[in-house]
Amino acid sequence: MTRPEWIMLGTFIVLLILWIGGSSLGVDATAAAFLGIAILLVTKVLTWKDMAANSSAWSTLIFFAVLVGMADHLKTLKVVEWIGASVASSVGGMAWPLAFGVLALVYFYIHYFFASNTAQIVALYAVFLGAAIAAGTPPMFAALFLGFAGNLIGGITHYASGPAGVYFGSGYIKTGEWFKLGFIASVVNIIIWGLIGTVWMFSLGYGR
């Protein structure tokens, strides 16, 4: 391996350690990322011209910065929490399969307002899980189903998760095409998990 390759490998390992244990070490993920960039620039593995020429990376950065900022404001203003609480209260009195179906669909598609799986789970998972259990849904079934949904929502938009933004930044997929295919994939996922997944979880005894 060449010197730049060794430096790149070492930088990757350092960043991996900081991203995994950053909370324990008191190092923010953003600070760790800038540290990695600084190491590569100082050692001349990368030049500023190389970075400036990577237009797709800059586009992804700016795009996500705006979306994350908007999501933070929606959370600060408690708009999304209000929607979740309103839906949760509206299913009172329904039979639990119908109530949970409504809650699961809203929980899934409300992700159009989020730029991160984690942000939605932190803001709404407990609210929807509590509403589902209150409606009579078997607790373990509800917890697992909403947990699985928290992963399946990662591709419905080009800003739904970190990897989605990177793929979109490559420039091969247009916004309209992503929304179209993302919605189709979401319907397929809901059918699979809603039918086959429900039967499977009940067969494992999670429907009690």
TrEMBL record:
The Swiss-Prot or TrEMBL record annotates one GO molecular function as:
transmembrane transporter activity
Does Signal appear among the keywords? no
Transmembrane regions: 6-22, 29-46, 52-70, 82-108, 114-134, 141-161, 181-202
Cellular compartment(s): Membrane
Which Pfam families does UniProt cross-reference here?
Na_sulph_symp
Give GO cellular component annotations, separated by semicolons. membrane
Indicate where this protein is primarily found.
membrane
State the superkingdom: Bacteria
Per UniProt, the keywords (alphabetical) are: Membrane, Transmembrane, Transmembrane helix
Q: Which family does it belong to?
A: Belongs to the SLC13A/DASS transporter (TC 2.A.47) family. DIT1 subfamily.
Name recorded for this polypeptide:
2-oxoglutarate/malate translocator
Q: Which organism is it from?
A: Rothia aeria
